[in-house]
Fold:
Amino acid sequence: MVKNNRAIVEEYTRLRRLQRPDGTGKSCRKAECPSRWKSVDDRPELYRKVGRTSAGHQRHLCKHCGSTFTVGHPAWNHRRQSKNGHVLKLLVHGNSLSKISEIADLAPRDVYRKLDFIYERVREFTARREGDLRSADWERYGRRFATDSQTLTLNWPNRKKRASVAFQHLCTAHANSGYIVLGHLQFDSAGDMERVEIDMALNGDIKKARCMWRHGRLWTAAEFKKYLDDITAKVVLDPEIAADVDLGLQLPHEGGLVRQDIQQYAHALMLRRMVSQSDCRFYFVQDGDAGLSKAFLAVVAPEVHAGRVDIATVAFDKYQVNDVREALWAQGRRDLRNDLGLSAHQLDSLPEEIDREIVKRLAGHRLGTAFA
Structure:
């Protein structure tokens, strides 16, 4: 199927932008100033240090408009900074927001403020790590990556119904260390599905093939409404409890779903960018999703033909019990040992060149050749 290149580029650009913090708090605050959003870290020539506050925070002067601002600790305006780490631990251990509010002794509004704070710190960390990964010595740390998609369910309420909407979370892990190098949710918090639908009606997108749409990245409001109607056909809030549902403490009603095929192509582009500075030969292993496999093959086709990337698509029976899984794993190791003529200890001691043999065995084709 022909894909919408414009939509793919738009989503790739959005994902790149998410990896770059906007510099809020570290740039000129005047909305009309050309230096607005140009942070001290990225453009130090635009500013001059002008002393510190009584608390020891650095002050800067904007050379363009002459205004000053303070660059303090990210949590300098938090009244209860000690709670930040507590909230993060409760969050990553799967506690609900209401439970976090109760355990941390924080008002719901303060919990949301701290979640916003944590989100910005995660973005800053991700941006730094993204830069580090591009210059990583993959020959030393390992050249194999595994990509899979997980289905997450999130509450998306409206005034009459509540629904558990399914989102795809696409992850790529560094197979040698298990570190998640890329993770993208099928959701754009800044997306406007209603605006997309209006624009599509005005420019005639509806009458065109999807690959030719001007707005081919997000679902339309009508598509999302039909999806909600289908999954909530028999779900209605009881009138007696509807008044107690505080929608102000629920997930926001804004944002848009990204089309899954567009997400897959953009994710593959991000992975290709991450390893683009290395001359190593990489091995990409994916779940047996036809769309994901096609996306990766299309994105890294030049690297495959040049012998820099090998791709293996693996199908799993996800419903086997643990005993059966372990038996299959053990049989696979025995087969691999027999093929290579190695003992168990020798197999465990092999360098990463074994990845080449694993990919060869999984793919069933000689490396360096193209296959469907």
Q: What stands out?
A: The two ends are 15 Å apart (CA to CA). Residues 243-251 have pLDDT under 50 and may be disordered. The first helix runs from residue 5 to 18. Strands lie at 47-52, 58-62, 68-71, 144-155, 164-174, 180-185, 187-188, 256-257, 282-287, 309-314.
